[in-house]
């Protein structure tokens, strides 16, 4: 008698199994459902992170966030190493999770913000129907939470078909990543894919970013009394003004290069012909050859002077390099688009004028690693009190992040190295 109902139960289950198992095209929606279920948890993580002031260089806040991130990574099963990010305050936090497959992923974003101490008390984390607000909520604490909850979702599903997932949280992006850029470049070389979790302004992924350089112009003249012997002086401020006008068009609209003079200093006392003057400017570019062009054009232009016997110098200090438009990033964006279209959404591949740490991960002339930027949560108003994230983007972006790892683990890109 006992056997009979069991048999019946087995037959019942067998006959219903095909109906209960999700069809292949339902899998994306199942993952999206799981991502949606994670949203409250994601927001709790985000609130915890946003509620600590961690402006670049703020030792106490940076250390507090660091402790949370190390704990969270360890709880997710990562091996965690923490190394000083000198000369910056804080540490580079590196978590590693080993899988059973081949593909190696680097997921990275920064945990410093641009906001001073006391900002959290002034305008703490809050949310309304559509948005969440607070210092660094999008840039880039929303991205940190995105990484942590992507790992959590993968773990929940026992997905281990990746080779390695490495997480890097750095403390100094907002001031140029002096203490993390070498780590980023080094880690990037050891991975197949790099995802950077800066926030996109809309439903987009970023395939190219600008490089940032500082341009400098300095003039040496000769001091003299402005009232009794002006002719004995060589006015550095006047020469600087003349050169600034000569150097006003160093950018190139065709190549997307901009050069904007933003700071001038010169003169000390009203009755002294100034002996020195300097100017600084901001250069953005995405074509690597633009450094040489701007330097040689600038150097040529300053040969002609307004005031004889002044000395004029022009130089460019290299800053964050660009993520140059490349086939690897394009293919990653295509994969992302197709995964997004599986949940009925559009995703736009964009080039952006910001410079980000993705530039340090990019190796000119190769397609490895393939790099995708702005994998974070959709947000805007960065670096301002209006900064927010779009709550409706949390689940789809979480789905995107997780499904990219799953998809690339199962089927790698075909882009040549
Ligand atoms: Zn950022």
TrEMBL record:
Database matches in InterPro entries: Bact_exopeptidase_dim_dom (IPR036264), Pept_M20_glutamate_carboxypep (IPR017150), Peptidase_M20 (IPR002933), Peptidase_M20_dimer (IPR011650), Peptidase_M20A (IPR050072)
Keyword Signal: yes
Name of the protein in its database record: Glutamate carboxypeptidase
Keywords, alphabetical: Carboxypeptidase, Cobalt, Hydrolase, Metal-binding, Protease, Signal
Molecular function per GO: carboxypeptidase activity; metal ion binding
Ranges for domain Peptidase M20 dimerisation: 208-308
Active site (record annotation): 112, 173
Endpoints of the signal sequence: 1-23
